[in-house]
Amino acid sequence: MTGALAPAKPLTATDRCDRCGAQAYIRATLPVGGELLFCAHHGRQHVAVLRDKGADIQDESARLSATPSTAGNDER
């Protein structure tokens, strides 16, 4: 084992914020083991402190502002 972190799996709709239960878009993997999940709102509140304490942050909150795909929506 090299000690490198395994690639983080994408967050899904079943991943819920540990603070409020909303869909999680941010995962903080703690240096002592374990992880915390946050919605975008609570992630913004806590991510700086967690990063300063050595947590690895996976932030997928940009998905909230992504435009939906238009595939299959041909207007003729």
From TrEMBL:
Chain intervals for the UniProt region annotation (Disordered): 57-76
Biased composition, class Polar residues, residue ranges: 64-76
Domain DUF7455: 11-64
Superkingdom, natural source: Bacteria
A Pfam family hit: DUF7455
Name of this protein: DUF7455 domain-containing protein
Organism: Planomonospora sphaerica
Lineage: Bacteria, Bacillati, Actinomycetota, Actinomycetes, Streptosporangiales
